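Job type: complex structure
Entries:
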Amino acid sequence: MLVATAVVLDALTYAGWLFLAAVGLTLIYGVMRILNMAHGGFYAFGAYTAAWGVGALATAGVPAAASFLVLFAAAILVGVVCGLMVERGFLRFMYGRDEVLMVLVTYALFLIMEDLAKLIWGTDPYFAFQPYLYFGTVEVNGLPYQVYDLLFIGLALVVGAALWWGINRTRIGMLMQVVIENREVAMAMGINVARIFTVTFVIGTMLGALGGALTAPKISVNPGIGVEVIVLSFAVVVIGGLGSMAGSIVGALIVGFVRALSVHFFPEFEVFVVYLVMAAILSVRPHGLFAQKEGRKI
Amino acid sequence: MNPLAFSRDRLLIAGLAIVLLAALVAPNWMRFLLQVSMSAGLVALGVMLQMRLGLVSFGQGLYYCIGGYTAAMLAVFTGINDIVVLAVAGTAVAGAVAFIAGFLMRRYRGIFFAMLSLALSMILYGILVKARALGSTDGFNIHHLSLLGFSLQGEVKQLATYSLTIVCVLASVLASRRYLSSSVGTVAEAIRENELRVEYLGSSAQVLVHYTYVLAALISGLGGVLFALAIGHVDPLMVYWSTSGQFVFVALLSGTVSVVAPLIGMLLLETVRMYAMAISPNTWQIILGTVMLAVIIFIPKGLFSVIMPQNRGGKS
């Protein structure tokens, strides 16, 4: 029973984390058709900014509750600054180019961001454990569990719901859907596609940075944290179908459960099982579980 | 691109042969640098072959690693340590795996090809980092090598593995060139432009992709063996996606104009890295990224398209 509880909790918290880390990727791909490798860089920048902010507050003697808010502030800051710089500075000159080429462009941006992080924050690890400890532990079904970890489930739900609302119930969200449906017709109808792209990219960046910022208290933030996140997020969004919001939820849950099961029962399979699932799903449903197949070009 | 442009490769290949042979009497460090970059350059060549079909493999490290690990495991666990046998075995295993994986890979294009190749390579990474018998993340060393029954030591070992590298690199380059100027290689170029039309003309795009995929894997596997023999060590980083990303970088930089270009590109990369790491280790990736962006934006056909302008007449 205890093991079952542990597996379910681990799976759900991990799925929540995966969703937060990956949803920005699928949003940007869905609207802009850019498979954004720089996402890992945004994640790392979010984590660094948050860790640095939390550390600064802690040395200033501000209570830990406030440092929790710093995590969100960091995500917004990074989203606006980095998102605008990358989108306005580079990507807007490349719209309409080949999808594979955009992968390479964002990969180059990712490499640059990796080193920028080292130059800005140095190579020593940062610790931001205050928010993590602040919430303490709670007993679930006889199993003591970190409340902060459980928060990931709730936050994933909140972010997911907010995105759903934003896309289906707001003007800008509906415009996004139009752009997804057909970019050229949208343009012809007088929709400012460039602005939609900018907004999407900034939101996507913010989500990536939020994933990093919320993870910062759980880990030691050091160079290289973005590298791993990229492939994991890829796995999640590819399983569900690139550009599909529902797909990324399902993808996160599948990866979360598969990983939790393997951690508890077959620890030596922990790393590769995720990619095995990804390869298996891709080989059966090439475009993921939730995306439609596109027509071939003639 | 006109296949005739490859006829100019003869000069380049001859030049490469001369440089490689001349390095036999060069200082040790220089020869070692050449040996390592030629080995890794073969993998970049594999990526470039696929790039001609418009396919970007973000997991070519898979075959690099399979080649290296096959050779290392044979040498350490079975005592078969003849370098020629190791090279053949590593290449064969990489080819066999690619032949099977090819049935899956050949159905994918664009970013899906990139993602799936990435996933396949990460599966192997996941297995290797948890394999304690193979040293997990540290990998393991290859201590004893032999050639025709003679044990190789010190200077002789380096000369022997280097000579093997020369032979293998030249063989791979010639084979690639032969392939690209064959009718199969010529049609491959058309797949990138318009796959459906290729099929209307009676060629199977999937079979062509499969061919190229296996050939690229054979060459990359060989590169992996040579790399393992050169440094006497293998570790899971060989198959991590950032390693594969570097091969993509070199292939992109070199472009698809010449089969020698990826080898020269890798040599340049390793040379620049050697100095950059010494002078300023924290800006190395900034340099890589900036160069990559510059190449994509200003010279989309790769650096070598500037040096070797291609025959425009053949292109419609």
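Summary: Strands of chain A lie at 126-127, 137-140, 143-146, 220-221. Chain A touches chain B through 47 residues (CB under 8 Å).
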